Amino acid sequence: MLRAKITGTGSYVPETVLTNADLERMVDTTDEWIMERTGIRERRIAAANQGTSDLAAEAARRALDAAGLAASEIDLILVATVTPDMLFPSTACLVQGKIGATRAAAYDLAAACSGFLYGLSVANSHIVSGQYKNILVIGAETLSRVVNWKDRGTCILFGDGAGAVVLQATKGNSGIVTTLLKSDPSLWQLLCLPSVGSRIHASPLDVEASMHTIQMKGNETFKAAVKALDEIVDETLGAAGVKAAEVDLLIPHQANIRIIQATAKRLKMPMDKVYLILEKYGNTSAASVPMALDEAVRTGAVTPGKTILMEAFGGGLTWASALVKW
Ligand code: ACO
Q: Which residues form the pocket of ligand 1, taking CB atoms under 6 Å from any ligand atom?
């Protein structure tokens, strides 16, 4: 039986750091409030000449290096993002050009913060079906471009970055065990970016109303996230026949420390089995899980034989999980 195995990971963050102290000078907030309510201390901001595809391409190069694979051997590039360079061509096509993946197919996937795990699930199906052997799945965002820097309820949360994995067909026992994808449109207005799209065109009036920036009802989103993630981790472990105690490491979407703690509590998992990068990078949406995974691999927190549970929640609403035997 064919399995999809993660054979290389990579990530990239821009150099510029925006700290909570910087934010104190921009909006009415404090480092104490942000740390207590979110767990975030700083985030990265892309340079003026960097688009999402630049961040994604660098993360992809590092993942290819780690896998020992040439870009020309990649069959498919999937980029999960809600901040593409432009509506078309896709960011995946731009990444293809930047890394020289000459024979790959390429497309973008939009599922907000759950996008990377959606991409991993789709890539897994492509591999298990025998269609492709080598796939790059990338989560990349430049959320700093779509944040309302006057809204203290959202601008403190988000940052820029990219994470990537190389997924390869294998016949061994390690690899993706199961993935679960969920969505519910009834609460889409809790978290959205209304413009630019086919409905709202970013006219001067729309821009004045900040329609081109992230709109979020934070408290309701928070409650929806905790409920959805509680359910999905139970269902994922049930589907795989794995007990929570058998999970070696939880790699959650890095949105808010309190949401992460709630999921860990549900799993009766001590926080030292939860991999966190939230404090350094904030919420990087589709990039957050692969960035955390890459750091966990490089620091030795993920080693062969370990069972890793990944989960994410975002706009749509969407939520998703993946259980991986490393
Ligand atoms: N500094 C100081 N005070 C603030 C700030 C701030 N930065 N932001 C809000 N406040 C105030 C509010 O105005 C409010 O004041 P009031 O009581 O006088 O009205 C008070 O703090 C409490 O506001 P809440 O919104 O209830 O605060 P909460 O504890 O819910 O924290 C937060 C807000 C951090 C946004 C939280 O709700 C959250 O993290 N939500 C989930 C975000 C998320 O996970 N999004 C999903 C993924 S994102 C994606 O898909 C792109």
A: 29, 33-34, 37-38, 112-113, 152-153, 156, 191, 218-219, 221-222, 225, 255-256, 259, 283, 285, 313-315
